[in-house]
Amino acid sequence: MVSEDAARVLHAVREQLARYPALEERRALVESLDENHLRLLPRTALAVITPDGLAQGVHRRFLADLGTYVIAYRFRTLSQQDAERLYQDGLTTGVPGRHITAWWIKKCVFDLGEALVLLLRHPTDESFQTTVTRAKGASDPTLARAGTYREIYRTPNKTFALMHSSDDMISLLHEVGILFAPTSPAELLDRPPWNEIVRATVSGYRSTVELRRMEQYRALYRLKRRLLLELASRNDLPVSLVGRLSALYERAGEVIDSDPGFVAESEAVKLLLQEEHEVLGTLPTPPARNHPQGNEEFVTAVATAGLRTLTAQSAVSPEDFSRFTKLLSHVGISLDALETTLLESHFFFRPKEPT
Fold first, then answer.
1. Separation CA 197–CA 201 (nearest Å)
2. How many helices and strands (H and E) does the chain possess?
3. Which stretches does DSSP call E strand in the chain?
4. Which of 22, 65, 88, 159 has the most CB atoms around it within 10 Å of its CB?
5. Edge-to-edge order in the sheet of strand 70-76
6. CA 172, 174, 178: angle at the middle one, nearest 5?
7. CA-based angle 277:282:287, to the nearest 5?
8. Per residue in 119-157, pLDDT tens?
């Protein structure tokens, strides 16, 4: 006979399991937890600092805020298989708000490097996972509350999450089983908090790439300027037009440097893109497919079409973006993995044109 508190937790976990039929495999794990583990579950939370979060040093702020409660950690480079298992409930169930319809764009972030997995236990907070998830903030940057991690670090779109956290107790057990394998969740729940020396050592970890924030617009305008220089080097544009576009890019750079916040920055860039669109509308260019690959006309067509693509306000499909990057490579312009993910996700989350 379990205590009333343990029975209440067990009932709540079973209800959660009923909402996630894809996680039925975890039923045996739930049923195997003893009374002490069941009592600890509501005070336990899982947080994953994703590669983009590590690059921005999110782990240092998170550990300064909640590091006292960490009982286990692990650095993980997630394969696509492991990452899909992590989001299994979102990928395969119809639970409102949980179904992931664009897995590939999330995978791009995990491909950038390793993640820091943290398991925490609070001494008194009986809704600790909810507390951690609220501190994380909304994935939509327009909805992120002030003071949440995603608002502070200016996530540019839903791809760059900074963090992942479990949604409830059954998700926590499922995800711990993946991220800390082969160590069992029961064994982890029994662990005491880590010591300050380990905490300080993990806080001092630095990612291979360190960034102040994920600057999608800086990547956008770096590529714009590169395309403009390609055209200018071939005398394909009037000097006056090069000057007008360059001035717009300078104004965009000033906006980005001032870091006015997501909404203000996006609105300012939107106006600049509208101005640029009007300027580029004066340039008739034949389609790149009409020119032999690699000749002067081909390069001119690709560079001009590239500027127009980067200036458009509507979404670009994954297939069109892939074709776009291939065309860039044919004229000697390459993007690194981070730039590719910044730009692809930026275009993906733009408004879709009406059909």
1. 6
2. 19, 4
3. 44-49, 70-76, 115-121, 163-165
4. 159
5. 70-76, 115-121, 44-49, 163-165
6. 110
7. 90
8. 999 999 999 999 999 999 998 888 889 999 999 998 998
